Amino acid sequence: MSPDAKLRSVPATSPAGPRLDLRPSLTGENEEPEGDVPVFDVKDLSVYYGSFRAVRNVDMTVCARQITAFIGPSGCGKTTMLRCFNRMNDLVEVARVEGRILYHGVDLYHPDVNPVEVRRRIGMVFQKPNPFPKSIWDNVAFGPKIAGMKGSLDEIVERSLRRAALWDEVKDRLRDSAMGLSGGQQQRLCIARALAVNPEVILMDEPCSALDPIATGRIEDLMEEIKSEYTIIIVTHNMQQAARVSDMCAFFTAEVNEQSDTRTGILVEFDKTEKMFANPSDERTENYVTGRFG
Amino acid sequence: MVARSATSSPELVRRRLQAGRFDVAGLVFRVLLLAALGITLVLLVTLLADVLSGGWAVLAGRLGDFLTGRLGITPTRVGIGQGLRGTFFIGVFVVLIAFPLGVGAAIYLEEYAPRSRFTRFIDVNIRNLAGVPSVVYGLLGFAIFVKGLQFLTGPDANGATVVSAGLTLAVLVLPIVIITSAEALRAVPENLREAGFGVGATRWEVVRHHVLPYATPGILTGTVLSLARALGEAAPLILVGAVSGFLTEGDSYRLTELRERFTAMPMIIYTWAGRPQAGFRSATAAAIVVLLVVVLLANTVAILLRNKYEKRR
């Protein structure tokens, strides 16, 4: 079935556009062998900021319940790429996307798709911990509250904080401001906040770059643990981190245009992490992972 | 190697560290800054001392009568009750009209409007409007509220009412309210918005739950400062037709009187300052002190509110 046919088969009954409730875990159909369920199909994706092309011609498939890492030198479009998956680039007015990202076969950039619904299913953790300047409880409860989730908010908050391995540290001060937490705790709170709305995918944009090695280790353990339930895409500058946590790895690099002196990100290689680090097929990947470049 | 061992001798290190060029330019700069602050303070204190000492006779002698009394021609019997009433209602109009309109426009400009050439054009124009002299706003108020909308603002008083004055001053401070609110919204960190959008909030939810609470202290400061500005303006009042000599109405604070003739504090100060009798000099000074206290009270409320919201952050 062509992607277009799939798109048309989505019943567009709700005014908010096509529903995206196509999670295999919910529908019970599509049960395929572990690791082979494609969540995202990226087809010939290019991202522009105004007339500047930040990323070009990316093709990749991201599978369910795996950790996919994006690595590469600074300015190669990893973060730009990541922010396309939950339409966060919509917030940048000059940003424009060409090509397609299919999420369970539905084009995320189809005009009928509601970006708010996209972001409810595809959560995000940012580079710098950015808790709301409110209480710890409010931080976690905000998402479920606005999503109108059923069930007790207290239970959702506790469950999310437990899953983010933060519960024991904060259970006695849920009403205290989140700004009083340490950087590592804040980042785990942001993960709990993302988990609270029960997304299918979590995008992480260098979640550990502002953290010390101990806090980084805890977040990596946490990712390993929630991997069984979530699909994770992580951007990282840290190659050891990519090697440690990811199942699949995408290496991006920047292509310098001599004429306009601009850099455009391209996907060089996308493969299983072991292969990328042990036996990459592209020379540029090898140079990067062995530390000869970047 | 010889030079190296010499520099590391404790005696030499001590001498090097304790030496140091005397920083003349730095000192001069510091003295100039201090002088700037000093001159400003001296000017303000002189002004304050002058009005206080000038108005002391009235303030200490008959404060109650002075605060409740009416306009008149006998300096020892005049009062500012009618002016306080007018100024109070002007404040009410500014709070009820300029604040919601201005804050609303700022939220739209900052959070919703696309960053196009057109919005930048509007932004620049609002900034220019904030710099337009108040006399011009007075003329505008005269044309629109006193003449054009007379049937609304008070046909019995030919439109020269506190409604016209309040509306005129609300329009006068509107650009200031927009600019200061927009600045406060611009100071909200982008990652706070991203955090909200990231968990699937709509723009309205992000603005309502995260952007506005964060920007509230800044918005409050700016809006109340603009209120102080509105309460102190005299020129628009003259053009709108505030009464300067004698006013029979305005004893009470009945709302029906909003559409009759009025006066306000800056107008009283302006007319009394021009009167030849010596007694009016102290009455003027006393009126100035009262207006300063009113403005100070408004600012205090702003600071208290701001502290309250900042604590919640």
Provide an overview of this structure:
The complex is a heterodimer of chains A (294) and B (313). Chain A is an alpha/beta fold and 294 residues long. Chain A has helices at residues 3-9, 24-27, 78-84, 115-121, 136-147, 153-163, 167-170, 183-196, 213-226, 239-245, 273-278, 283-289; strands spanning 38-49, 52-63, 67-71, 95-103, 106-107, 122-125, 201-205, 231-235, 248-257, 262-272. In chain A, helix 6 packs across helix 8. Mean pLDDT of chain A is 86; it is low at 1-33. The model of chain B has no long low-confidence stretch (mean pLDDT 88). The radius of gyration of chain B is 27 Å and the shape is flat. Chain B is built from 13 helices and no strands. The interface between A and B is medium-sized, with 29 and 20 residues.
Features:
heterodimer; A: 294 residues; alpha/beta; six-stranded mixed β-sheet; four-stranded antiparallel β-sheet; 12 helices; 26% strand; B: 313 residues; mainly alpha; 13 helices; 76% helix
Tally of strands of chain B: 0
Order of helices and strands of chain B: HHHHHHHHHHHHH
The radius of gyration computed from the alpha-carbon positions of chain A, rounded to a whole number of angstroms, is 19 Å
Using DSSP, what is the number of strands of chain A? 10
Oligomer: heterodimer
What structural category arises from helix and sheet content of chain B? mainly alpha
Outline type of chain B = flat
For the sheet with most strands of chain B, the description reads: none
Largest sheet of chain A: 6 strands, mixed
Structural class of chain A: alpha/beta
The percentage of residues in β strands of chain B lies in under 5%
- Which strand order do you get reading across the main beta sheet of chain A? 6-7-8-3-9-10
Measured distance between first and last alpha carbons of chain A: 41 Å
Strand residues, percent of chain A: 25-35%
> What is the radius of gyration of chain B computed over CA atoms, rounded to a whole number of angstroms?
27 Å
